[in-house]
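Standup notes
- HV: blocked on the assembly model, inputs below
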Amino acid sequence: MTALPVYLPESTAHHQYHRRNNERSTLSLLDRYFLRPTGTFTDEDGTVRFFDDITYTEYFTLFRLSNTTTTRMANLFAERNTVIGSPSMHVIRRDHTRSHLTRIQPIRPSQGDLFYLRTILQNRSSLSFEDARTVDGFIKDTYQDAARAMGLFADRNEAQMAMEEAIQNLKTPRQLRLLFVHLLVNDCVPSPISLWDIFHYSMSVDFRLQSGNNADIAYTRTLENINMLLEEFRHSPADYGLPVSPSHTSEVLHEVLHWGLQRQELEQQASSARNSMTSEQASIFDCIVNAVSSNASLLAFVDGKAGRGKTYLVNAICNKVRSLGRIVLPTATAAFAAHLYPGGRTTHSTFKVVTLLLYEVVSDAHTGTC
Amino acid sequence: MHIQVPVNNRNEMLLSTIDPFDSRGDLIRAASVVIWDEAPMVNRAVVACVDDICQKVMQNSQPFGGKIIILLGDFRQTCPVVRGGSQADIIDASIKSSPLWPLFQLFPLSMPIRNADDPEFASWVDNIGDGAGPEINLDFISRACSHDELLDFVYPSEVLADPSCCLRRAILCPTNMQVNMYNESIVCRIDGVHRTYLAADSLQEADEVGLIPPQHVLDYVAAHTPPGLPHHALNIKVNAVYRLMRNFSIDAGLVKNTRVIVTGIGTRLVTVRILRGIGGGCFIDAEDILLPRINFTHTLHSGHTLLRRQFPLSAAYATTFNSCQGLTLDRVGVDLTTPVFSHGQLYTALSRIRHRDHARVLLDADSHSTINVTYHELLL
């Protein structure tokens, strides 16, 4: 077990074996980490790794330092010899069959910038104190700024910054709307309405051009589009406190309109699929279609071995039922399977099954219950 | 005051938020047929919940309101996930243990599709699914002698250079640790600029009351990625293939496990395009999709809830036996140096391909066989 010190550059409190006015003063483990060898080594998986890329804890988990060594020793490396007055150490690969635990000393957030320096050292490789606060080629003023720029702390404005970055990169309004919806449904936006206020113009540019620069039409069509995208996640703009778009169709009407126009085409697809089915597929298909036509109830389990044409069968059933002007809800436990069927959804979202219960307990002064 | 009451381990307390007379209630009432794929994967409580909604919507007490319900799936390869659950827990959670199960009529779909490539291989794989073993002799499939040989078989350099070629290939292993090891070394072999994104981790309980999360817990989860979460230090390379770890849009085909290729690495956004496989061919979608960092939660063994904000991506060259379900593959490398540990895993891995020549297995040097795990109670 090695406990690794962490301290700000101006401090000397943590230097191990520190002797005042002694030219042979030894450096701390953190200094030694910054002085680690250059080049590459091979880890136990056989992967070639760069010394520059390993973190503080990884370095001391994988290597130990020694003053003395025998020349026969394999896996021996030399430090970058750049510090005057301090002898270089030999860097020796630890025996990986014996695990060695390494930890950076814990620091409380109340210790200010030191806390952020520790977080950076824990997570990223660095070559110096200055390198530890360099992000994308820019040296930050503090470790706190650097840690935030590295994304190590969630930022309330992250959604806004993501939208701004998309606009700077000339992404299309359509892509912006999808991004906006993704941010909403993943609960990444603390205040949806203010994000909408800032970006609704950028998200409506295409509709604006299409409508002869009519701002009202563009605004409404943008809301409608976002409403449509949210519908898939069984949410509405109102859930996020966004303006409600004026037109709203019922789900039954939506479903009937969606497939109604293609009925002939669907019928053709279903019958050509029926003709090339195996006898097993065909009998299942007929049994289900008969039940639909005669309004009978049916509970069936199709035991589909891998690669026996299950997707093919389900698509044919959906096409047939829709060509009859009836509604079919294709669902699957996992979204990956659901997306193989046109109009497919997860079973959980179709039936709005919640896996978490929320009870609202109201404290009531009159009855004294809580 | 809001109190969150999680469902118990057996998910017995599931509810739906549908009102029989809201828009969704109307849709379910109007629906003639409900199709439910991959039903064996679900906890039986969900089936009970769906039965309950259908009865309420139809205002009768017939099973599922008298609707046509078509469940599909394969009990040989899927079973419900019960975290830390024993074999008995998994069997109890299965829809086969549901009181509704005996009401379902069984339809087998077992006839091989015409011109099956390798019928002998297909029946050998079927035997594994039906519970052969526990010792399975693997001399039927060619061997790879090392990790590198397995890598070169599945991803030779010309394949790695063309992301659309990688869609129908995979290295399959039982554990996440092996998967990470393969993915890391494959991503290294790809040409492209890369960037490492660090996640924002916190513990929900500590956040809520304004306490400081214990550093050693966060240090640990940064180094050991919990299942289902993206890595804390996520290395993203342009031109490499990743899979999505969240459902974004089913209609757009952006769902969990969709394969995407990274085209841009920004500060707050990663730009990707979907890799689509249609009729054996593969192509890259023309539309850029912008991915932001999103929140993931995970309940740790200590009972704390880890909140991780990270891009929902994970390298897709190697995958676990559990998450290869539903993929059709042209070439697989199966690493069985660690044997399978749960129901149906071996069958799932081997049934991804249609011909024995499409696979190589990696076993320990002097071994010719592996273990097959089957919970016979789950089979039909």
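- HV (later): unblocked. The first strand of chain A starts at residue 2 and ends at 4. Residues 356-370 of chain A have pLDDT under 50 and may be disordered.
- Next: hand off to the docking folks.
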